[in-house]
Each structure stands twice: as structure tokens, then as C-alpha cells.
Amino acid sequence: MPEVVFSVDQTRSMRDQEVPGHNRWHPDIPAVVTVRAGAEFRVECRDWTDAQIGDNDSADDVRDADLTVPHMLSGPVAIEGAEPGDLLIVDILDIGPIPQQSGAVAGQGWGYTGVFARENGGSFLTEHFPGASKAVWDFHGVYATSRHLPGVKFAGITHPGLFGTAPSADLLATWNRRERALIDTDPGRVPPLAWPPQPHGGLAGTASGDAAERVLAEGARTVPPREHGGNQDIKNFSRGARVFCPVFVDGANLSVGDLHYSQGEGEITFCGAIEMGGFIDFHVDLIKGGMEKYGVTTNPVFLPGNVEPRYSEFLSFVGISVDESGTNHYLDATVAYRRACLNAIEYLKKWGYSGEQAYLLLGAAPIEGRISEVVDAPNACCSLYIPTAIFDFDVRPNAEGPVKKDRGRCALTS
Amino acid sequence: MPEVVFSVDQTRSMRDQEVPGHNRWHPDIPAVVTVRAGAEFRVECRDWTDAQIGDNDSADDVRDADLTVPHMLSGPVAIEGAEPGDLLIVDILDIGPIPQQSGAVAGQGWGYTGVFARENGGSFLTEHFPGASKAVWDFHGVYATSRHLPGVKFAGITHPGLFGTAPSADLLATWNRRERALIDTDPGRVPPLAWPPQPHGGLAGTASGDAAERVLAEGARTVPPREHGGNQDIKNFSRGARVFCPVFVDGANLSVGDLHYSQGEGEITFCGAIEMGGFIDFHVDLIKGGMEKYGVTTNPVFLPGNVEPRYSEFLSFVGISVDESGTNHYLDATVAYRRACLNAIEYLKKWGYSGEQAYLLLGAAPIEGRISEVVDAPNACCSLYIPTAIFDFDVRPNAEGPVKKDRGRCALTS
Amino acid sequence: MPEVVFSVDQTRSMRDQEVPGHNRWHPDIPAVVTVRAGAEFRVECRDWTDAQIGDNDSADDVRDADLTVPHMLSGPVAIEGAEPGDLLIVDILDIGPIPQQSGAVAGQGWGYTGVFARENGGSFLTEHFPGASKAVWDFHGVYATSRHLPGVKFAGITHPGLFGTAPSADLLATWNRRERALIDTDPGRVPPLAWPPQPHGGLAGTASGDAAERVLAEGARTVPPREHGGNQDIKNFSRGARVFCPVFVDGANLSVGDLHYSQGEGEITFCGAIEMGGFIDFHVDLIKGGMEKYGVTTNPVFLPGNVEPRYSEFLSFVGISVDESGTNHYLDATVAYRRACLNAIEYLKKWGYSGEQAYLLLGAAPIEGRISEVVDAPNACCSLYIPTAIFDFDVRPNAEGPVKKDRGRCALTS
Amino acid sequence: MPEVVFSVDQTRSMRDQEVPGHNRWHPDIPAVVTVRAGAEFRVECRDWTDAQIGDNDSADDVRDADLTVPHMLSGPVAIEGAEPGDLLIVDILDIGPIPQQSGAVAGQGWGYTGVFARENGGSFLTEHFPGASKAVWDFHGVYATSRHLPGVKFAGITHPGLFGTAPSADLLATWNRRERALIDTDPGRVPPLAWPPQPHGGLAGTASGDAAERVLAEGARTVPPREHGGNQDIKNFSRGARVFCPVFVDGANLSVGDLHYSQGEGEITFCGAIEMGGFIDFHVDLIKGGMEKYGVTTNPVFLPGNVEPRYSEFLSFVGISVDESGTNHYLDATVAYRRACLNAIEYLKKWGYSGEQAYLLLGAAPIEGRISEVVDAPNACCSLYIPTAIFDFDVRPNAEGPVKKDRGRCALTS
């Protein structure tokens, strides 16, 4: 167990920690600690919502979540000698939930997958599932099960949903400009096209005075992935992965949060994977001038680890870029993947799951989302791979037809 | 070796075979043979262009290809007892290139990956690579190498790019209607938004008279994947895969073509994977009423096989839905994947490959294209996984920087 | 398809081919062809018994097989420039059964697994299964099934059971000397401790006159693996494998035979894997002086390929070196593996298979045999891994107990 | 984190714990806790030697280790309702080293691989390596490195070397009888053929009075695996594995110890894998009457987990049952595996490692040991698979020959 450079008392909000974290991206958030290149260290994390979601059978907390709060990040950690233009090597040595005590917050033996209501965040299939729903997962070492999804058990592909280096002032300005431009194309949209800076709910780390005000006023929201990494939600950032992150400020200023016990590709439920607080162990190093050397200027590059759960049999679904109304979209992989997800849900409903249950399952289990082709105009083709071994029944099609059973229910709103 | 139910003389065009195939989708194309449910049989195939592309060092043939010709399909094969509403089980028992003789056509010991010119088909990155280019691959049993891509060798993930059941008249009308509507939004676009029916170049199988005229006038082009399967270009339809295809006409009328020695996910070069003629061995069976039983109404469902090439180490690239001009696109996985591809190409250029070479490599090698997240507004995140073992050098980033070498050249236009 | 340098007419015995092969190892067997280092070529093979075993429901042919005949080998192929002390690189590019015609001989759409009778060869469990038995397997592209083993289907891990370079005269003398010494410790044992030179049934390739007589008189039997490779029965010599073979004579003189559609580790049934005739495609090259450079003096070194069947779930059995009578053997991995095999057979019998059926299955399916520990005196521990996916039922233990069904029968003797 | 039912203070010997464990197998060792079938619980463990081996650069501690002490086991844990004849389902939910504090004992951030001296335990290759040696490994989350083995890094396949149910009095008597009979065949052998009961150094758990005396006098040593499981050293008992153990006494009485951060198959160094103290999380359940139901009477059956480190490329070595003096042994897999190990060591020496270093590496890294064939008289064939990715150089043979470098040194004796 390496040295803890950012510790969290899970009985208190991130705002009330001795050294608080942050929930906006801004170059003026001070590093809370400096480590050497070559160091190994541990960072403790809150769950992304700062414990707004409970281990219960109602999705009211998901419906009513305050979305100005996420993602609660731990850090920034400065790396000695890091300069703009370098690549920061980030090795994920280990990751796990919070040592269990009372079970009060996500990560202490349990986690959750939620679907946000359309009016409060929405999700990938929000037109089809406009209400909030939730599944609570119990952790059994490497395995997760859910009372809200009987018949399912799988080894989690544990990873941080979000980590990244701090943006430079220029880069931040670019983000704010381009996202504002997008919002302006449909300012009243529900859910919004993007999440603009929002002082309310903001947490500026250890910044104070003017700096804190700038962070709250200008700080980029943590929702989207951007050039520095950020909320990439790449499920393969699991144990043993090595990520090469562009550096934009002196010290790099690495922050992390949004730990996932597991996630399906797409994180289609948005709230989200199997969310939890916990810890992550990093090793860091530098490739001086690496951005230019390797042409890695706009996004991280990575090497996945080799201790992910391993499956060899999948049930796979296909979608093409014809939307639900029958309209053709030109090589639109988003529509194609949405159709693949909807096809999978229809299939799972035939076995007795509700649509909400199937949706939650796709957001949480180690499914793969593939771009099969994006050239055969007008239809992109995406496919979705569900490991068959996660079910305690044979989920493959056969001549007799599916065995429809009572599969319980997930948490819904009151 | 099971019975050959559709044979091809590779010295002649598909038009001149004793029993010709077809290159349009239409319910009036007669089945050329009927097999029983439970049968195993072999189908021989031309390469998708009917041998327009040669084993040479010029991409002029790609530039000048007649795109009214593809895809030359073998079939249709009718299955006794198949009725609309059934699911046709299609097992891919084996697949391979043409037994080598003169080497005159793709599949006889070699195949090709091409990038279409913008004016004649285009490709996924056509704005960046508007010209035609080509790599010729030599087959060494399970391995492929290319004189146009020195330093690379990999086991192919061999599969049919295209197979599917025949559409009903209603379904065909739906296709034509919705694709026409899309074209009408920008009729002069280059490349076109979709490929409308086109009598010129059409081949109606064994249809004659009025039926043949209807096929040529109304027949859907084979380019896009649709509800029946079609040109899905799913690389995991490899040996051992089982596909469940919706049935829309009596007999199902299964056709197949566009065999790929290998392909990267996305088939981003469009012309295309590693293209070849060859053979495919099928086993077929029926799930009566399976479409309703399993809710499989709009696209096939499948179980990938377990004899694909297996890698455990990948170099991976990330893209987000901010386009090359810096404009944000709302959760657009197509843009995100394009950026991931462009990032990979920039990286490979640092090692001495030309952009065209890198592009061709991504279209051919068994790379994976993943939808990492499609909910973190406004940026979708896609990732692209290149197996590191396909290079004869260590392609991973290190402190010294990449070793830039002369990596030869691919075929370009005159 | 590379050039065929050794062709076989499967309607005739290896003895009656235009260019016959051989079934003894001897430096005086002339090479039948010479290829360059760097060459790719195809070799055609008879099944190891020269077609003594038929596609029928009796094991009488196994019981009565003439064991002076195997293994019928194709070659030798000389490699230009190869000299003693070199390492011969042998790449297995492809391998497969005989193109199906009449089905008359093993490899034409079918193969067999046999257990030799104790009096005629014996097998690993000959004390438990002294009689002959047989299962005939039907090939369906990558998959095999057997009417003698209902409920089982798997992708074969196809490989040559036997290939190797020719021994020098000195090496041959060493073999004959040490094996004679072993035989002399119990000359009347049934089955014998080793197989001494045996002129009867021998085939000396294209040797004639004195040379032929020497080959028959002194030639080493092909049964055991030795320093040159030989009958190693390593199932992972599958497509894509690279083997580095020591060279003992000028030209290396590579011979090959005993093709297996599939095999379980141990080849415990002895007659044997899933035996077949067929073809194998090789690429060869040289590492001059490689034996000394790499210290590879006594046995080949190899890199397995990456297109083997892939499984992720196994049912595994354990054995320790306490024999069936309760006697302890000091760190004896052979006894431990035998007990693991017997434990697996007992388990499978609970599901309705006969002991012979279970035995045949373990010899044929892609099972793994592991040496778990060989130091915890006095008991070695071996384990045996059966992929669960090869059964069409759930073979894992559960609270209800196994479902015992009629699982048919394998071929037995009259 | 489930409830800890057996806790260990790592600053004290197992003998001095509040509730001590045991280091002999005997039915009279009282259970220290009883759990329900279906329970999940944590057990804390000492390293197998009770901390005799230190984090230093001398192998003197290995040379001088008191072998009457191992293996220090935690438990027994009784399971409510377990009766002789049942199968105890043991799920390995999680496993890991001791939370790091001072680093004083193995498991607190480090572990060791040792080779015992011939006079004190010996090892698999003790004739070749009669002296003691040692490598200390540092843990970096999932990865291990060693200052004694530069150039090597790998993800550990973490598992318990030893766990099992308690023997009945009858079974214990059988063990003692058969092992004594073996010892009597060569009573003075060094190392001994087996380890007889030995009161000196024994620890009888919470037994007292007559019971304690019986345990010390009759208790079976923990070295070998036996019918109940025990020291099987199966590396695939990693996270997610399910093991079905025969039950011989009421309550089953499960004990565990000898945790390994990683191990190569064979555990050929004997002292041993990468040894550590730590914790293990179990889930247990019962199959009533399962021994008879499934014919599992002599050894456990298991399902490996699916979160092991995953490799796809291996460098593999072959051995046959001809010993180092050139003598043939009849189908002796132990000799064959020994030769494969020696071949691997010779190869690694060509790259600059000492023989001791190579030996230690084979004992620690996730290598596979395969029984390739055990029927081709007189030579068994075994093979050993080393993942190539564990080296920071390309370890595969090539035309240039190996790059011999200074690879440091391992710990030796003074």
C-alpha cells in the first residue's frame, strides 16, 4: 500500500475534508501535494455525487440529485518537473472500493447504477426511459450482484471514470467558447447540449479569494472528456493500464474521481457505471517533450492492462443508423449504437426483465460497444457484446424460445 | 468440405458464370438452390468488385473503379420451410481465400485494402485523404504481410463483410423511400449521402424478363447494412460465429459476398478491409417464429466464434466529438471515432509511415473500435485499439521517442 | 496455397505413392526435395496409421492395428544451407484435413480417436481400460462432433502431432542405445517399455539398396519425441506457431505427419488425438549457429500461435501421486496426471457417459494438462482443465446433482 | 470487506496470536469459529514460514529456515451443517497482501521466492542448484518487480498455495501409513522422501491437553497436497475461482495459508512462489452428499476464475523423459518437466541471467507447465510456457543471437 497523498474521510462531504478536492477544471486550483516522477502513491476518492445516492429501493435520490455537485475529484497532484508539452505516464497499479464499515456511502461494500430523469440530466435512451431508475450492487470481492437484477453476477472491470491533467488558461478558454457555441444552437434543450460553468455547487479545492472566484466563474464542468483526458469513462483503464496524458500546466496537476466498480461501454445510463468511492494507486513518470515526439496533442494514448475480467462467449446485438421513426442518418454511429442498445433491451425483456432493468444492466456489466463500420453509406453499424457468462441461465436463442420468468424489479421513483 | 451449392469460375466475371450471382437486393431474384434446414454447404465468392483491382503498385484501379458493380454476391440460397417471422440460424463453419493458381484475382494468395478517392466513393477520412491509395497483402496461411506496409504482420480475422436474407417487397420499398429522403437533403453531395437504385451495372441473378427489369430498377444497392443484415462488416463474423438473421421472404434467400481476409473495426478505408474472393462454409437452421419469440425484428443477433486471433496487449487512441476545426458536436460517436483514427495516424507517422500507409493499416489489421461513452455531454468518447504484436518493432511510447525509419510506400495514383 | 513439395494420393498407401514417405528416423533417408531458407511450401500427409482405421462403429480395427506401420511421415524436405548446429525456424502457416471426396480415409471430413488394447500398444489408462475403443468425429469446418459422444461440440486445435529434423548417425545410435537399455530392464512387458528398431513394416522413403537396409535395421521408431522434436504431440503447434528445431544433419531434413484435428494434453488415449490425413503449410528459415547461440541443444523451443480456440471457463480436476492402490510415489507427475484423468472420468460418468466415452473425450477435446506442483513431497499435483463450453449442457456441479442421461455409446470391439 | 473471522497481528508469531492457528492437519484441532453455509468472511494469514525470511540481500535465512514450522495456517473455520460426504463450495472472492506498514514481514509491500538448500528441504532442481538462493519482490499494486531480477515485471496471479478441509481420523491414519511406507524405502535420503509427523515445531491451534498432544504426535505435515486439498499450489485458485472440497469431518473445518502473490506452475523453487502474508475472502456453501453425487471422492474439483493475468504470447520450452545422464525413464512426466525447466534456464542464461536468477524467475512468474503427452513410450513430453511480455526486452530467438547484458544478481548465501 503506497503512501496516501490525498485522504478522504467518507463520513464527510468532500467540501468538509481537511484538504478538500474540487469539482471544476481550472488552472488556478492549487496542487495539494507534489510528488516526484517515478513516485507511487494512493489517492482516496468520494463517489462522484458526493454521496447523494443511497443503498435503498427508491430512485428518488437519482431523480432529485443536485447535478451542480459532480464530479467530486481528489487532487490535484503535482509532478515535479512536469511542463507543458510533456506526456505524463500514469500507471493504474490498483483500485478498489472503500474498506467497508457502516456501508453508509457508495463504495463501502456496495455501489449503484442510475438512470437520470430526462429533466435532470437525462441519459442515452432518455426518450425511451424518461424517468429515473436505479440498481444497487453488492460487492463480493471481485464479483457484483444486485437484488434489483436477479440472475446476474459478474466480475467487475474496475476503473476510474475520470482523471486528467489540469488545463491551461488558453485551453480552458477554448473549452468554454466551443461548448457555449454548441449550447447557443438550442439554449432551452432538455437535457442541455452541454454544461456551462456554474458557480453554484462548485468546489475550488484549496483555492481562495480571487482564485476561488475565478474557478467558480470560469471552471469547466467535469462532465465531458476533453483534450486532457477527463471523464473518458474508458472501462479498460483498469488495473495495470498505462495512460499517457498530455501536460498543459507546470506540474501537470493530476486529479481523479468517479471510480467505477464496473461499466458497460458507452456508460449509457449516465448515472452511471457501478458508482463508488474508493482508492486508486498510481505510478507516474514523464516523457519530456512527449506530445511533440509522439504527436499526442489532443487526447491521451493508453495501453490497457492485462488483468481485466476475461470472457470468450458473447451474445451480440447490431444497430444501424436508422432511427426509431425510420429516418436515415448519415453514418451516425451514435444512432447505430442506440439502436443496438434498444435491440438488446427488447431481447432481454423477453426473458422477464423490465426495460429499466435491462437498461441498468447494459450500463453496469462489462459489455463491449463496437463501431463495426462507419463507411457503408448511409448506415453506420455498431454492435454490443454481452458476455453470456454473467447470467445464471442460458441466454442464447434456441428453438424453444426464451424462458420468461419473474425477474424482480429495480428501484423506481415514488 | 461440404457440397458446393454456388460455384464460381474465378477466370470469369460474375456476370459470365454458368449460374450468375447478383449485386442488388430484391425479392424477385430467384433462389439458385434450395437446401434443408440443418444443411451444411459451401458457397464460392468473387471479390466484391468483380476483380477490378489488381496486384500491382498503382492505385489507379481503385481511383477508377466502377462503383455500380459492387457487391457481387453469391446466391440466393433458399432454405426449405423458412417463412417470414422466422430466425435463420447461420453458422460460419469455415471461410478462406481461393485456392491459389495464377494469382490473377484477389483471393488467390493475395488481397487488397484500398482508399477510394473522394470523387469516386470516398472514405471515412476523405477530407484528409481525398486521393486513392492501396496496399496489396500477401497471404501466408493465417498471416498477412504487405510490401506496401513493411514492419507489419498479423493473423487475419477472416469473415464475410456481407451476407443477408432477401427483403420483402415492403421492406425494400421502405429502404428506397428512407434513403431517397436522405439523399434529397443534399442531392449533389460528393460522396453521396446514399446510393439509390441504379440499373447501370446491375446484375439480377437468374431473374429474367420483367422480374429482371424490376430488380434493376428497384433493387436496393448493397452498400449499407440494413434490417436483414447485409453489409454489416462485422469483423467478428469469423470462423465459428453463429448469426440469427430475420427472415422476410419464403425460403429466406440467403446471399453472401465481400469476403475479408481481415478488417479493422469501422472498415474506415471503405475499399476496404483486406478484400478477396474465396469460399465460405455455412450451416443453416431455423427458429420458427423466432423474430417475435426473441424480439429480433430489426437486425440480426449473433454469437462470435472462439477461433479469432487473440491479442492481450494494445496501443489505444482516444477521440472526442470535437471536430478538426474545434467545433463541438453533441455526443457524436462518428466524429469521436474519426478523431481517434486521426490521432492514431499522427502517432504512426512519427515512426516513418506515411499517412496513407497508416490509414490503410487501420482498415486492414484486427483493430478494435470502441464506444467508450456516449453520455458525457457534449463529448462522445471513442477509442481505437491496435494490437502491439502486429509490428516487428516496439511501437509503445518510451522516453527516447519513436524510431523514425524509412517504411517504404503504399500504392498511390499516377 | 503454396507449392506442394510432397503430394499424397489418398487412395493409395504411403508405400505406393510416386514418391513414398518413411516411417523410421534415419540419416540415410534421402531428402525428396530441397527448398531455400525463406521458402513457403505445402506438405500432404496420410493419417499416422496409413488408413488402417475406418469410419464405422467397431473398434476392431483399432484392436488389430499393425503398429509396425506408424507413423507414416511425409518428407524429408532439405533446406539449403542448413548445417548441424543451426536452428531451423519452422512456421506453421496453415493446416487442415484432406479436401473431402469419398470420405474413405481419415481426414476426408472425419477423423478418429482410439484407445489401443493393452496387448497391442496400450494407453495411458490401460490398466483401467484394457480393451480397444473408438470415437469417430465429423468435421464441420472449425467444429467437430461425434455420433459416439453426443452432447459435445468444439473447435479443434489443429496441429501436427509429429515433425522433426533427421538425426545424425551419432544421435541415432544414442537413441537406440538408451532405449534398448530401458527395454532390457523388463523385456517382456506388455505394453513394451519402448519400441526398438523393427524392419518389419518399415518404409525407408526413397532409400534403396544398402541404405534402405540400414534404415530398416537401425532406424528409430517414430513413437517417442526426442532431441530433434519428433512425436511431441504438443497441441499448441497450431496455426501461427513458430518452432525452432535443432539441426543435426546437412539440410536439416524435415519430415512431418500424424496430423491432429484436435487433441487433449497428454494424448492419453494414444490412438490418439483426432487423427486425420491432410495438409500442412510451412515457412522455414535458419538461425545459423543457433543451437549454441541460444543454448537450444536438446529439444526445440517454440512460440505458440494466436489463433487457437479460446475458452475462458473450465471445469478442472486434480490428481496427486498416490496411485489407485493407495501407494505413495515420490513427486511422480505421471501418477498425479493419471489420477486427475481418472477423477475426470468418474465425474463424467455421473452424467451418463461410459468410462470409455469419457476417456475418448479427454484424448480429443482441447483440454489442458497442468503440472501444478512437483516439490511438495511426496505428492506431485497435476490438474486437468476441460472447457465447459464444449458440452451442450451445464456440466458444472450444482446443488441438485448431475443430470444422468442416455449419452449413447462409443465404438467397442466385437 | 467481509467480516474477519480469523485475525492476525503481523508483529507477532502465529504462536502468539490471541487465537493461534496451526501447522499440522488433525481432526482434533478445534474450529475457532463457525459460519453458516452461504457466508462470506475474511481470513488473515501469516506467510508460510511465520516470518523467518527477510527483505534483504542474503539467502542465509532461506538456508537456515526451520522447516518444522511451515505452513502456518489460519483456521479451522467450521461450516454449519457440513457433514462427511458433502462437497464444500469455496469461492475465492478476493485475496491480497497485508496492508503495508513497517514492511517488516513478507506481504507488507514485498514477498520472496527462495530455493532451499539441498540439506534443508531441497527443491525440484536441487541436484543442479544445491545451495540456497532468494529473490525479493516489490509489489506495485497488481505488478511485481525484483531488484534481484532486473528486466522483469509482471502482474501476479495471486492465490492461496494451501487450503483444505480437516481429515477424519481414518484418513489421517491412511496418510501417515502410506507416507511412512515411502520413507522406509530410503530413510536416510536427503532431502527426505516425505515429511513424517514431527512434534517439534508443531502448533496445535486451540487444542489443549491430550488433544494437543495427539495433534503434535500424529498430525500430518502440511507439505503435500492430499485428498482434502491441502498444499496443492494450483496457481489458478485466483480471484473468482470456485473450489469443491470433499468434507471428511463434521463442520468441514476449513484452514488456509501459504498465500502467493504469484507462482509459476510446478512451484519448482519450493520456497517457493512469491510468498507473503495477507488476507483472503471466502464465500462458502454446501452440496449435500456431493461427493457421491459427483464422484468427487479423492480430490477437489474446481472452476478457475476469470480475472487472472492474460497473456497471448509465450516462449515455450520442451523436455522429454531422458535424464541429464542420458538415461531413459518410462513416460516420466517429472523428468520431462525437469528437463523443460533446465532447458529454459540454459536459454535465459544466454541473456545474462545467472542460473539461480532464471530458476527463481520460473518459480515466481505466471508460467504454465503442460503435460504435452504421456503415451509415446518411452518419452513423456512436458512443456513450459513463459509469457514474453514479462521481460522489458524481446526475449524471442532471432538471427542476431541473444543480447547478453549484466542482469545483476540474486541473493545467495554467505
TrEMBL record, chains A, B, C, D:
Superkingdom of this protein's organism: Bacteria
Tagged with keyword DNA repair: no
Group of enzyme by EC: hydrolase
EC code: 3.5.1.49
UniProt KW Hydrolase keyword: yes
Keyword field: Hydrolase
GO MF entry, a single one: formamidase activity
Protein name: Formamidase
